[in-house]
Specification:
Pfam families: STAS (PF01740). This is STAS domain-containing protein. This protein is α/β, with parallel strands linked by helices. It folds into 2 domains: about 5-75; about 100-220, Transcription Regulator spoIIAA (2-Layer Sandwich), CATH 3.30.750.24. The protein has helices spanning about 5-10, 15-30, 30-35, 45-100, 120-140, 155-170, 185-190, 205-220; strands at about 105-110, 110-120, 145-150, 175-180, 200. Helix 7 links the parallel strand 4 (about 175-180) and strand 5 (about 200). Helix 5 packs parallel to helix 6. The longest helix has about 55 residues, at about 45-100. The termini are far apart. The model has no long low-confidence stretch (mean pLDDT about 80).
């Protein structure tokens, strides 16, 4: 179409031209439905009508493409939300499992017990130590039994974590006793160069509790009587 023909169209149909300009303006800001509503239901079969029809088809396809992108974006957001929720659930379950695998029990007045289950890695050892320290301070406990009956083996690194736990507990005025010690665990602890000389290890939790009660009874007997 020549420039003269275009000028002729603009002169002959100024209202249709302004309507098309409004359509283009609406489409440029994403108002595709409003833009399509401006097209006449009975398009005229002339050159301007061909231009209108071409623009209508273009905006219709542009609207469909925009809606598809919005659906894909919404699906991506939903997928991300689902992943976030699942990760939060996994983290919550992991925390609960760790709590269950290392509960801190009040087995007697002033005596705590930590029955460990599974593998004692570095992160878990730090978590158990921190929880035990807080509980010792809160309850003013004088003894803590760390039971290894359910631990899956004790290597040199795990044994070192245990030693650090014992020392940390001692710093807040509590004595830690290791129970559930197998011959293999005993050898691993003995091989450590920095193993404390006063480290108390006993075969099971019952013996550990008996040891703590006897020690407390002996301490009470040795204490001087209160004078009026």
């Amino acid at each position: 179409m020549s420039s003269g023909e275009v000028e002729g169209l603009l002169t002959a149909a100024p209202e249709r031209f302004h309507r098309l300009m409004a359509v283009v303006g609406l489409a440029s800001v994403g108002e595709f439905a409003a833009a399509l509503a401006h097209f006449a239901a009975d398009a005229q079969e002339d050159n301007f009508g061909l231009l209108e029809e071409g623009l209508r088809v273009f905006i219709t396809e542009l609207k469909a493409s925009h809606e598809e992108r919005e659906r894909a974006h919404a699906a991506l957001l939903q997928a991300n939300q689902d992943i976030e929720q699942k990760l939060a659930l996994i983290e919550s379950q992991r925390h609960e499992i760790h709590q269950l695998s290392a509960p801190i029990l009040d087995v007697w007045d002033g005596v705590l017990a930590v029955p460990l289950v599974g593998t004692l890695d570095h992160l878990r050892a730090l978590a158990v130590t921190d929880a035990l320290l807080q509980r010792v301070v809160a309850t003013r406990s004088r003894a803590a039994l760390v039971d290894l009956t359910g631990v899956d083996g004790v290597d040199a690194e795990t044994a070192d974590h245990l030693i650090q736990l014992v020392r940390a507990v001692k710093l807040v005025g509590c004595r830690a006793v290791i129970t559930g010690v197998s011959p293999g665990v005993a050898r691993t602890l003995a091989d450590l160069e920095h193993s404390p000389r006063d480290l108390q290890c006993l075969p099971n939790l019952r013996e550990g509790l008996r040891h703590c009660l006897l020690a407390r009874s002996a301490a009470s007997s040795a204490a001087p009587p209160n004078r009026p």
